[in-house]
Amino acid sequence: MLGMMQPWPLTVDRILGHAATRHARREVVTRSLEGPIVRTSYGEVHARAKQVSNLLLDMGVRPGDRVGTLAWNTWRHLEVWYGIMGIGAVCHTLNPRLHPDQICWIINDASDRVIFVDEPFAELLLSRMDRAPSVERVVVLNHDYENLIADQPEDCAWGGFDEETACGLCYTSGTTGDPKGVLYSHRSNFLHTLMCLQPDVIGFSASDVVLPVTPMYHANAWGVAFSAPAVGAKLVLPGARLDGASLHELLESEGVTVSCAVPTVWTGLLQYLDQAGATLTTLKRVAIGGAACPEAIIRGFHDRYGVEVRHLWGMTETSPVATAGAVSPELLARPFEEQLPVRLKQGRAPLFCELKITDDEGRRLPEDGRTFGRLKARGPIVSAGYFKGVAGDILDEEGFFDTGDVATIDPDGVMQITDRAKDVIKSGGEWISSVEVENLAASHPKALLAAVIGVPHPKWDERPLLLVKLRPGETSSREEMLGHLEGRIAKWWTPDEVLFVDDIPLGATGKIDKKAIRAAYADYRLPGT
Ligand code: AMP
Predict the structure, then answer these.
(1) pLDDT for res 431
(2) Which of 202, 405, 420, 511 to mutate to test the pocket of ligand 1 (most atoms within 8 A of CB)?
């Protein structure tokens, strides 16, 4: 027997529609690329997004067509995003930090018909248009955009299609082989929004002021472009300026209560705050994900600024948020020091995502908090395959997707990433977690960033090499760094060598770029080997 409730497809156009009718005057504030702060509202964003839809329909864009964006987080990007999705077209967010040739490759793979681009990236794109035959129009957001939408009507029918309709396309960073497209549906994004709004995940309310530093091109800005309007939270968009001073200014001037970013951004902010002696008067919570959150960040925010860190884990293929830091009620009553080890873990999977760990043969491993294995995920927020079917069937017989991460799960259901499968250091047949060692190294007060890679060793196959970028003006030694690790990790996990470097390369999404580091040290030999 079927239930007798109303069919109401879960399509994301309803999210902005809701914000525009019930929170019409709630502000959307942007630091524009030109410099000045621009203030608009959900009501205006909605009206202009419909103008974008009409523009796209005039250009001949039809349901299922891909429309690219190559842009920072701004109110215009938000309008374009909903304008595309509302008419059943697919919003394809392009990452401007990728190499231009790779951007071109991705545009071709997706067959984007129209691309909305921020001025600073326009030249790069336009100079390569002969290599992107599918692209019929490029609209420069801080140029022709205003003129093009000005005469379009502010009314346009949105939705009315199946909730399984594709609405977003985002390519994975492509650390192995060509990038692969992850194709989100309206339903998956809608459910992911509800999931993120849970208080134990990111959790916004109408009184929150939210600043997503995480770019809209990096896995949907962790869903914030959906979850903030869904509850009428004020949205503050940082444009192109993501340095500590600029972020601090926005956080304070707009009264931001919750923000999200990758660890490197927070390291930059904390460094600025510490040096400038600045304070955070409204910020309550920061969500951190995209890479393991170093202890120094959790401590720094808690001890010096009274801000709670919410550790998130996920990936493009999981919409992206798939676990959130979980401190049990019992532990919450304990001193912060005792909570720290749990806060460093990536957390519990909420409803809508199921996890398991397995060995290389796919056999489930015990969830005892010690055994580490391949982390696999399933649920309505997880990819069932890649765009155009590349990579074939990506699910196991139980419907789980192999995340490529290695993790433990403890008896309380709390997951901890111990490595990327390809970054694990295999020493004498046993696995060393590069992440754990680098987190510990980065917690040394003199260290700014740390990276650990495996380098060849005649006896053990691989041994860990630690690279450290020190804070400005600091000096240190191999002995000091290794002394800091002593007693905190198994002896055989101790790096064989420590190199102090001027820079540690970051990838296109702000994470430590292990692939680049491995390439740079491909010929490195440990002393005495
Ligand atoms: P991307 O698809 O570019 O967002 O990259 C996803 C990958 O980032 C995951 O598979 C993890 O390897 C890594 N990652 C994301 N969040 C975390 C986290 N909190 N701790 C450790 N690794 C993370």
Answers:
(1) 77
(2) 405
Cα(201) to centroid of ligand 1, in Å? 16
Q: How many residues does the chain have?
A: 529
**Phi/psi of residue 437, nearest 5 degrees:** -65, -40
Question: Block means of pLDDT (10 residues each) for the chain, length 529 residues?
Answer: 97 98 98 96 98 98 98 98 98 90 93 97 90 95 96 97 98 74 98 97 98 93 97 98 97 98 92 96 96 91 97 97 93 95 96 95 95 95 97 96 96 93 81 86 94 90 94 95 92 94 87 89 91
Task: Please tell me which residue in 284, 295, 431, 462 is annotated as part of the active site.
Answer: 431
Beta pairing partners, 92: 68, 169
For residue 435, the Cα-to-chain-centroid distance in whole angstroms is 18
Q: Tell which one of 321, 382, 417 to mutate to probe ligand 1, the residue whose CB is within 8 A of the most ligand atoms.
A: 417
Domains of the chain: residue spans and CATH? 8-186 (3.40.50.12780), 354-420 (2.30.38.10), 425-520 (3.30.300.30)
Supply angle C-alpha 445, 421, 365, rounded to 5.
Answer: 105
| Smallest CA separation from ligand 1 atom 9, residue | 315
pLDDT digits (tens, 9 = 90+) for 286-307: 999 988 888 999 999 999 999 9
d(CA 95, CA 220): 11
Q: Looking at residue 465, what is its pLDDT? A: 96
Which of 163, 317, 367, 436 is catalytic? The answer is 317
Angle at 137 between CA 133 and CA 142, to 5 degrees: 135
What pLDDT score does 423 carry?
A: 87
Tokens of 346: 């990536």
Which residue shows structure tokens 């990327």?
420
Omega into 320 within 30° of 0, i.e. cis?
Answer: yes
Catalytic residue flag (residue 295): no
**Residue minimizing CA distance to atom 4 of ligand 1:** 315
